[in-house]
Structures are given as structure tokens and as C-alpha cells.
């Protein structure tokens, strides 16, 4: 007698096959640990062969889908786990603490990362006829369940890398489909809110972008609030709802992360880096650096140099 598998069994089998293919394709494209670019600039792939320490870093807007292993991201005490069942969306630039928690040389952490362009999201919403304002304001970071349609679109983009000549024409279409699947997902309204022009979240996203571009400049909260057509008190409240910190704290984190980047990647001395990002007091810089990164600049840099930032 022939037995026919039930629908859940078929779905489970298909899901396992999709994950296996995604893992194999990422592993093939990442011969060593680190972040690897691809023929399609918005797409990068990550491989890490051992658990990492908690590492503060600045997350830019992107989608992260794990094919193997798992990682956690912590924002203001809230922890988000992303693994083969859950993807992570970063909808605005955010200082986040990340840690790979499951990875071995035999089964490394493998991750698909796709940059998110807010303007592309806005255009997609307009085309779909859903570009209406939403008044809720949520944190600019969330994790959600991977759906079958989303995984299918991701795999088609990965397969496209095998034919580089097709990438310029077809990759943008697949990226658009992937964003559409995310917007259609269980928490897609959060990403949608940040792209709708007349929403509060979109205004905060513009302010975050302005701070990101001008973080070395003196900060005027009143001017920043006016630039996005909000009162100062409302701006403070909404900014913290999206980023979990005040504008001043956000600017301070960006400056400290830039100082760390200069010391790690540019081999700049601690005091030179401090002055470059606007600190006049070496003791204040060392104190605030230790508070954020867990160690004074000199020892933390010595420990972290050459560790991949994922």
C-alpha cells in the first residue's frame, strides 16, 4: 500500500531542503570567516566558525536570514534571536550588541544579509497601494518567522549568483520581491511605518539618518525636531520609541563606535580617535568608552583587533 505524506510533513521536508540549499550556497561563497561581498552589492554573506563575545556595533538597515547556527541582538535590554526559523529586520540605523551563540567549524554560523533602502520600500508600498500613514511607533529592530514565500525568493536570489551576467537585471527584481514578503509578514507593519512619508516613524527615520550623517557636528535637539516638523517634546518621545535612546545618547554611541572603528581598522591611537570624534577630555572618553564596550580603549582594542564584526 502506498502512503501519502501529510501536508505538514511535506512542508517540513520542503523547509529542511530549502535551508540545506541556502546553507550550502552560503558556505560555498564564504571560504573563510568574515563578511563576504557578492556580485550584487546590497547582498553580503557571513560565516563565523565559533561563538563570539557580545560585541557592540552599529547595525544599518538590513534583513538578516540565518541558514545555520544562531545569533542574538540586544537593544536596550531586549534580546532578539535569529536562527533558521527567525529573521531579523533592522529598519533604521541602530547601535546594537550582537553575539553569535551557535557555531562550530563543522557547522558554522551562516547568514544572508540584504541591505534595505527605505526609498525602495516606499516605492514598493506606493505600487501596492498601501502607502497610508500609520500612527504607531515601534522599535526599529524586530525578529519574525521565516515564511515559505520569503525563503523561496531568497533562494532564487542566491541561485542568481551562479550567473553573474543576469545579476544587474534580475537581482533588483528579486530584492523587491523579498522586501514585499517581509512587508507582508507578521511584523511587516513596523517596516511599513518607517517608509510611509507622513508617519511619525518615517520622520524619526529621517532624523536618525541626519544624525548618522552629521554625528560629529554639535547637536541641537530643537533644530533636529523642527527639521522633521515635530515639537521638541514629541520628538524626544518618538525618537526613544524607535531607537530606545535619546538623540544625545544616540549621537554619543555613534561617536564611540566611530572611534572604535578608527582604532581597530585604522590603527589610530586612542587619544587621536577621541579628538577626531569630538572628545576634549581623555578621561571622559575612556570612561564612556568603557561603559559601552566593557573595557578601556587600549585593552579593548588589543583584545578585539582582527575579530570579524558580524
TrEMBL record:
Q: Which Gene3D superfamilies match?
A: Homeodomain-like
The protein's UniProt keywords, in alphabetical order, are: Transcription, Transcription regulation
Q: Which InterPro entries match?
A: Homeodomain-like_sf, HTH_AraC, Tscrpt_reg_HTH_AraC_N
* A Pfam family that the UniProt record links to this protein: AraC_N
Q: Which residue intervals define the domain HTH araC/xylS-type in the entry? A: 205-303
PANTHER family with a match to the protein in the record: ARAC-FAMILY TRANSCRIPTIONAL REGULATOR, TRANSCRIPTIONAL REGULATORY PROTEIN
The name under which this protein is listed is AraC family transcriptional regulator CmrA
Which organism is this protein's natural source? Lysobacter panacisoli
Q: Which gene encodes it?
A: cmrA_1
Amino acid at each position: 500500500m502506498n502512503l501519502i505524506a501529510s501536508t505538514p510533513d511535506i512542508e517540513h521536508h520542503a523547509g529542511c531542503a530549502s535551508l540545506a540549499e541556502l546553507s550550502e550556497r552560503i558556505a560555498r561563497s564564504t571560504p573563510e570567516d568574515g563578511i563576504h561581498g557578492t556580485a550584487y552589492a546590497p547582498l553580503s554573506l557571513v560565516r563565523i566558525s565559533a561563538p563570539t563575545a557580545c560585541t557592540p556595533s552599529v547595525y544599518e538597515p538590513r534583513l538578516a536570514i540565518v541558514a545555520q547556527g544562531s545569533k542574538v541582538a540586544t537593544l536596550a535590554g531586549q534580546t532578539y534571536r535569529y536562527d533558521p526559523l527567525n529573521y531579523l529586520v533592522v529598519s533604521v540605523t541602530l547601535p546594537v550588541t550582537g553575539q553569535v551563540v551557535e557555531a562550530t567549524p563543522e557547522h558554522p554560523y551562516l547568514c544572508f544579509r540584504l541591505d534595505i533602502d527605505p526609498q525602495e520600500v516606499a516605492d514598493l508600498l506606493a505600487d501596492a497601494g498601501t502607502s497610508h500613514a500609520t500612527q504607531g511607533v515601534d522599535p526599529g529592530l524586530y525578529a519574525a518567522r521565516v515564511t515559505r514565500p520569503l525563503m523561496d525568493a531568497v533562494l532564487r536570489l542566491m541561485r542568481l549568483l551562479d550567473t553573474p551576467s543576469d545579476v544587474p537585471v534580475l537581482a533588483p527584481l528579486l530584492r523587491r520581491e523579498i522586501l514585499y514578503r517581509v512587508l507582508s509578514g507578521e511584523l511587516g507593519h513596523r517596516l511599513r511605518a518607517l517608509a510611509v512619508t507622513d508617519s511619525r516613524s518615517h520622520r524619526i527615520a529621517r532624523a536618525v539618518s541626519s544624525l548618522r550623517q552629521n554625528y560629529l557636528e554639535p547637536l541641537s535637539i530643537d533644530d533636529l525636531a523642527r527639521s522633521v516638523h515635530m515639537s521638541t517634546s514629541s520628538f524626544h518621545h518618538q525618537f526613544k520609541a524607535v531607537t530606545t535612546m535619546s538623540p544625545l545618547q544616540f549621537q554619543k554611541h555613534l561617536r564611540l563606535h566611530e572611534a572604535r572603528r578608527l582604532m581597530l581598522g585604522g590603527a589610530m591611537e586612542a587619544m587621536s580617535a577621541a579628538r577626531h570624534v569630538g572628545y576634549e577630555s581623555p578621561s571622559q572618553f575612556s570612561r564612556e568608552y568603557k561603559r559601552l564596550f566593557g573595557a578601556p580603549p587600549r585593552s579593548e582594542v588589543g583584545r578585539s583587533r582582527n575579530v570579524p564584526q558580524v
